[in-house]
Structures are given as C-alpha cells and as structure tokens.
C-alpha cells in the first residue's frame, strides 16, 4: 500500500477560533488557560479529521500560536536579551517577539516596552514569518519541548504523527544578525545549533516518533556556496547522532535542481519535493536518490484551491513508482496546507458550478488519500469519475472561457503598451497643465476607515439602508477628506477610498471572472488572516468601477484629484490565480480590463491616475534567470497596457510598499510618478540607487503602521538626508502607504507636519 501524507494543516480553526481567542488573550479578556484550551481543540480536531480521512502520515507540531519559525526561536533560545529581561511567561515572550509589547506597570507586573522582531514574507507566499535574529551572545539550548508535547498529545488520542520542524540550514539562512552583532553571519552558527537539533530529535525518538519531517525550503533559492555546503555538515552530523528518528527532508515552492549536488547522497531516509510547482525536476531528483531513499511526491497543491486532476496526479505518481517501486514512494501535498482555506463545505453562497471545482484543506485530505489508493490498486473508480467530471466541467464552462477576451489578449501589440510620448515630453506637458510647486505633496490613497464607515457598509450589504442612502454617505465622507486636504494644503488630492472594503476585493467584485468565498480565510501573519478572491475565468470589466467616486471628488475641488486603482499584478497576487492559464495571460487580461477603467477616468476629467502595484516585488520568481526576467517583462507590460492609453498631459502614478524594492524592477512600467515605502530605509547607497531612476519619485516619509506622529523638524531632517543624494526637482513628498488603519487625530497631525516641512524646503530652494 502506497502511503499518503500531509505536510501540515491550517491552524486557524474552521471559523477563525484561534484569531478570536488570541486577540481576546491579548486584550486581557481571557487567560492562558482559555488560549491553550482552544489551541488544543484545534490541534485535536485537525488530527482527528486527517485520521478519519485515512491519511497515513499526519504532521504534528504544525500548530502555532503565532508562527512556526518564531516557535523554533523560542524553543532554541534564540531570544534577544531585550525580550528575556522582562522575565515573561514563554507564551508572552513569544508574542512580544512576534508583535511587540507595550504595557504599563501594575502592582504585580513591571512595565514593558519592546518592539517586534522583523517580519518577512515566507518565500513567494502571502504568509509572513518572524525572522530569527541572532547575536554573538545567542546561546542555543532547548527551552521547553513543544514538538514533543504535541507529538504525545496526538499519541494520547491514538494518532501516530510525524513531527515537523524547520531544518537547521533553512532556519539559520532565513535569519539575520541583530543590530549589536552586524558582523555575524547566521550560517556560521551551524555547529552551535546542531547539538540542540540532535537533542530535540533524540527526545522525539524517546517519545516514540519514528520519523521527523525537517523542512529545508531554502533548497529552491539561489544559495551562496557556504550555505550549500552546510547541508552536508548538518545532515551527516544528525545522521551520526544517537537515537534519532528517520529524517524526511522536505522542500517546496520550487525546483531544487540547482542545489541538488548539495543534498545528493545525504544520509537521510526520505526527500520530499514539490512536483506541482516543478514537475520538470522529476528525472533528475529521482536519479539523485540513493537506492534506499524514499521519495515523497508532492502532487496535491498546497498553495491553491483547485481540485487536483486525479488522472494527471495518478499518472505522475505511477511514473515515480515505475522508477522506484511502491515501497519507496509516498503521495503527499506539495507543501503544508497552511496556505489554503480550511473547509469548502462551509461555503454556503458559492455558485454550485464553481464550488464543484474547488478543494480546500479538508477536501485535499481526501485527494491525497484517493491518489494513494488509486496507485495502490484499490478500487476508487467512483471518486476518479466524479473528479473527471468536475475537471471537464471547469474546462468547458462558459464561466472560464470568454472568446472575446482571449482574442483581445492575442491581438495585444507594442502600440497598446506604449505612451504616445517619452517621459521628458510628457513631463513638460504635465508641468504646464498642473503647475505644481517644487516638492509636491500628496498621499497614497486611503484615509482612515472609521467605525462609521464600516457600520454603513455593513448596513448596505445587509440591505438595511438603500443604495441611495449609502451613496449619500460615501459622498459626505469624500467631501470630508477633500476639505481636510485643502485645509492643510496638500497639492494632489485623493478621495480617500471610503467605498472600498479592500483594495483587491473591491475591484474583483466588479470584474467578470472572479469568485468570492465567505469563510475562505488564510493566515497572513499572527492573528491577521486574509480571504483572497479567486480568479475563475477570463477577466473583463463589464462596467466602470471607480469613476463615480473619483469624478465626484474632482467636481468639488479645483486641485488635481488622483483616481485610484489596483494594478494587474497586485490583483492577481492577492487572489488565488487560475492554474489552467498562465499568470502572464491573467495579468494581461487584468491590464486590458484596467485600461478601460483608466481611459474612462480620463474621459470623465480625472487627469491624475494612480495604479497601485504593492505586490510586484513579492511576485518576483524566487530564483534569478529566465523566469524572473519573463515575469518582470509581463508585469511591466500589463501595467503599461492599463496606463498607456492616456494623453501626455495625464499623469500616471504608481505605488509600491511592503518590500525592498529594486528601482530597476519598475523602470519599465514608465509611470510618471511613483511613491514607495521608504521611511525605514537608512542606507545611503539604497537612496542613491533611486536617484538614477529617470522619472519622479515620492520616497515615503513616515511609517503608517505606527501611531507615532513625526514632528515637522523630523520631516525636515529626513528630507534633508535624502536630498544629500536625491535630486530636488524629482522629489515628491508623501507617507509610506495608505492611511486607512490610522486614526484621524494622528493623520491630521502627521500630514500637517509633512506639508509644513515641504513648504520650508520650497522657500529654501526659491531663494537659491
Ligand atoms: C498596500 S498599498 C495601498 C494603496 C492604497 N491606494 C491605499 O492607500 O490604501
Ligand atoms: Zn502601500
């Protein structure tokens, strides 16, 4: 019998139970007992669910109250001194590292004030992990035994599990040196950390675990030589350690071939690779296995919500069996199912035709099991034929196929993606038209999404107020925002985006080709979950999406008003994309749909238009090479398709955030003005890189994630710093990102100081 295996299951609960309890714990409404009780319930439910589905290899230690990488930092005692000094309970230390902690002193507790560790994207997913942060004083040791406890917890239920931990090479490589130890190279800590891994593995073995899944996802990245060499050191050490379980080294989200030489022949029992993402690596990885090694074939997609095509999956696994024999093959999910929503059966509003194409984490359990049974020769005819019908229905559906859109994509040519004139000529035309001062001030789009706004939106969705009433409300919000901006003297205004629930969902809901879930939550970080829309078919724009609000906003002011749209790559990246059509084609379709919107805005008199692309960096393929350059090309092309149909006098803006942006990646977008998140970037070399950027840039001047209000003097100092390397005549003044999560008080104070600082520089430069 070929075994089935699941690399990890979502830990948020089917109805976001973990979020509710964790946030209640943070606000002091429930205690640790309640938090731990809910955590335990979720873990037990997940194991029982998998057991009932017939999964053979079930993961434990895939649960986390915040982040699995952060759990390891706590477990291995990689805790910077600024957190240990408060002597908090382990769970509170964990949360303090994950999200910072500010607490006044009470009779029983000391005051605490500590910021969070850095949080970064987990490979190319929208999950964020907390970066391990090491210093010369880091002393690894086992600090608790979470993986052992959770293994035993499952065992008590009669469920045998395979504990999972991030492996030593990935754990170190994904970390960084702390401020006080900048010369420290994390990978140099390998020898120090290996004994602690060995100790943990021995404990797991003593508890009864026969095998352990060690994740080494960095195998899909471009790795420095030192890091490549670390695999041999690490796994030979662990294999020689006493009393350790069998090791299953797992990698996912890409192709491991460029690093294959570093893992070939390692003394481990099994390798897991992702054949959904990179089926082309099959022959080479099979050839690299030793005669005893087992291959875990990741064939059920852990990153998307589409039903697997059983006939294809079965054929693929059979190929592996033909090469290795049944005993050496495991059928598995491509990665942990953490990146998929929990259970499709909770979707009550989804169109039944579309619902029949989807598979969430719970459904994927059955998929792994069916494929394993099919290749073992068990009778699963019924399941295979039901699946074949669903796959066929999707392929042939009128929802997925729109001949007119497909034809439009085919006829895209150079002309459709270039502006009428080059930037210098446009700049001259726009100067004359808008007559903006030096250091023009603007914001990124959203203003505070107040409780009042959410209440009214809810009432409207529920039908408690009419469309007309809601419209009047939105107009009054827009007017408030416009008057405010005029009052404090901003130059290019925005309407504030009060009508938008979310910058992707709002457009997705109006475009043809999208579907929405009501409960399809996926963890993004900590207690923040997102509910990505799904691209189900060819995308087009049946009607204008943002024109009404922007036109109204422009009609009540003489100043320039920015129309505000979300760009093709961002809509695509923050949705579940189709897997039957390339992402390039989906991006181009979105570009075409947005082009209609941009042109309509211009025709209606909105002559500054911003198309946001904050996700452009995260979409970048993990490795350099052809795939990356292709991506950058179509990302730019789809943006230009959206924005190049306008007159030279119309000013196109774009915006980027949440990333270390490389200016070279955005040149080809040819936007007239871009604004980027920048307030935490201190490296003068990095600023310098932007001064070579040909068009105009607003380098974000304050952090919108923090309630802190920078003073006018701070703004002046920061602008002065940047002006040392960045030319004044290209300099726009703006915050890092939209202001929707902030309160009005802070927004008023921060923006006022920002505008005053810009005026100071204007006067200074006028005198010169
Ligand atoms: C994550 S980027 C956000 C851009 C959007 N226009 C806003 O201001 O909220
Ligand atoms: Zn932003």
From TrEMBL:
Q: Name the residues that bind L-homocysteine.
A: 444-446, 612
Give the protein family.
Belongs to the vitamin-B12 independent methionine synthase family.
State the protein's purpose: Catalyzes the transfer of a methyl group from 5-methyltetrahydrofolate to homocysteine resulting in methionine formation.
List keywords of the entry alphabetically.
Amino-acid biosynthesis, Metal-binding, Methionine biosynthesis, Methyltransferase, Transferase, Zinc
> Can you name this protein?
5-methyltetrahydropteroyltriglutamate--homocysteine S-methyltransferase
Q: Which InterPro entries match?
A: Cbl-indep_Met_Synth_N, Cobalamin-indep_Met_synthase, Met_Synth_C/arc, UROD/MetE-like_sf
Q: How is the cofactor bound?
A: Binds 2 Zn(2+) ions per subunit.
* EC primary class: transferase
> Does the record carry Lyase as a key word?
no
Pfam families membership: Meth_synt_1, Meth_synt_2
Domain Cobalamin-independent methionine synthase MetE N-terminal intervals: 4-320
**A Gene Ontology biological process term:** methionine biosynthetic process
Q: Which residues form the active site?
A: 705
Keyword Metal-binding (UniProt):
yes
- The record lists the membrane-crossing segments as none
Residues holding L-methionine: 444-446, 497, 612
The Cobalamin-independent methionine synthase MetE C-terminal/archaeal domain, residue ranges: 439-759
What's the cofactor?
Zn(2+)
Metabolic or biological pathway, per its Swiss-Prot or TrEMBL entry:
Amino-acid biosynthesis; L-methionine biosynthesis via de novo pathway; L-methionine from L-homocysteine (MetE route): step 1/1
Which residues does the record give as 5-methyltetrahydropteroyltri-L-glutamate binding sites? 19, 126, 574
